[in-house]
Design goal:
The structure holds two protein chains of two kinds. Chain A is 36% helix and 23% strand. Chain A is α/β, with parallel strands linked by helices. In chain B, a hairpin with a 4-residue loop joins strand 2 and strand 3. Chain B starts with 17 loop residues before the first helix and ends in a 9-residue tail after the last helix. Classes of the chains: A alpha/beta, B alpha+beta.
Chain lengths: 273, 132
């Protein structure tokens, strides 16, 4: 017998794994017969997959800029900014010098001999270029000329991961002492974390002008480069033009942005907006 | 919560609870123009009576609570292309609440003036740092 069940294909940023899964369960309360497939990657990698012809019904990314830079207007008309977050420095009880680290001394702790810290790849994942922005902002905020180069020099290729969620894995496995991740990911994984000052953690729209003074050059799959300016951390979702199930896809977006969806986002450490 | 005095060392000046004035400030801003949360946070931080950084998460939480209480309404606002953001506007109930806040703050202003008049009398002159 033929299976007439419809399938909703969702492609999302790795950092949104838990909230998207939880929202699918909420979605199934209204649409129990819909099959849902989930796949994830770094946000820029997700956008490149769509650019290369991959058909998905919903795409949820960790930076609205990725939509603007790569997908609008060719593949997406409108994208919905649904949550915010902030960059933090995650660690656990086995991280070296964890009892000493604070929002004031973290650069010195990271630069101590033998301390390992990781970030995600700025060419694939917004968390990666946001980390580089945090380091640039920290150089100014703490008045430490050369701090960016020192931190960048200590975080070699073996400490750079494709997605922020992989980075979290490297802390779980004890391969690094500290990781630059989103507060929501730290909360979901029960990591301890240093909350960085608003002036550098990319959380507060009041500092948007200051954040915009730093930038990172990212290289795309085809070798093209884009300049990404600093901005408050935001997450956005869209229904691509080539979605085969637009009605269901819009229903999922509605679930994500509903009161119930907001409760789910909050329970995952995100800030619905 | 009356936690604004907790954890204050002797000799430190008291801290006014910023969040308490956030709601009337949001009502005041939205009485002028509808706006999305991002924009409201920027404007709230520019207002002089919130002298300190407001926590972004707290402002979004207050906006959601005010909407649930019927003081605000929201819809997704977007152009032909580009980002859609939840935009807030004041309801009739919100406008009434703004009037209530203005009356309450006016009464509080009289109490503060009475306090400062008595204080100056005790100190026999203007405040040392030139305030008031």
């Amino acid at each position: 017998m033929a299976d007439n069940r419809k399938t909703l294909k969702i492609l999302h940023a790795g950092a949104l794994r838990k909230p998207i899964k939880d929202c699918v369960h909420q979605f199934w309360k209204d649409c129990p017969d819909v099959e849902v497939t989930l796949d994830y990657a770094g946000s820029r990698a997700c956008a490149h997959a769509v650019l290369e012809g991959r058909e998905v019904d919903v795409i949820a990314l960790a930076d609205p800029h990725v939509f603007e830079d790569l997908l609008v207007p060719g593949h997406v008309d409108v994208f919905f900014v649904f949550a915010t977050d902030q960059m933090v420095l995650g660690y656990d009880e086995f991280s070296q010098y964890n009892s000493e680290i604070t929002r004031h001394n973290w650069p010195d702790i990271l630069l101590r001999e033998g301390v390992l810290f990781g970030r995600s790849d700025h060419n694939l994942d917004p968390c990666g270029y946001r980390t580089l922005m945090v380091w640039q902002l920290a150089e100014k905020y703490y008045n430490r000329p050369g701090l960016f180069n020192l931190l960048n020099g200590r975080c070699g290729p073996d400490l750079i991961h494709p997605k922020s969620i992989d980075l979290a894995g490297s802390l779980l496995e004890g391969r690094v002492d500290y990781v630059f991740i989103y507060s929501s990911v730290a909360e979901q994984l029960n990591f301890r974390y240093v909350r960085l000052p608003d002036q550098i953690n990319l959380s507060n729209p009041a500092y948007a002008d200051e954040y915009a003074k730093v930038s990172v050059t990212v290289t795309g799959k085809g070798g093209g480069v884009s300049l990404v300016r600093g901005a408050p951390v935001e997450f956005a979702v869209a229904v691509p033009k080539n979605s085969a199930n637009k009605e269901l896809a819009n229903l999922f977006v509605k679930t994500l942005t509903s009161r119930e969806g907001e409760k789910i986002l909050e329970s995952c450490g995100l800030v619905p907006c | 919560m009356n936690g604004e005095m907790e954890g204050r060392a002797a000799g430190e000046p008291p801290v006014m609870p910023l969040e308490k004035l956030t709601q009337p400030a949001i009502l005041l801003l939205l009485a002028q123009n509808k706006a999305h949360g991002y924009e409201l946070i920027q404007k709230l931080n520019q207002m002089e009576f919130t002298d300190g950084d407001l926590d972004t998460a707290t402002v979004y939480r207050i906006l959601r609570r005010m909407e649930q209480e019927g003081l605000l309404a929201s819809n997704w606002e977007h152009g032909e292309f580009g980002p859609a953001r939840r935009q807030y506007r004041l309801t009739g109930e919100g406008l009434n609440s703004l009037d209530e806040w203005a009356r309450t703050l006016q009464a509080r202003l009289r109490q503060i003036e009475t306090f400062l008049t008595l204080y100056r009398h005790i100190k026999k002159g203007p405040l040392q740092n030139g305030q008031g």
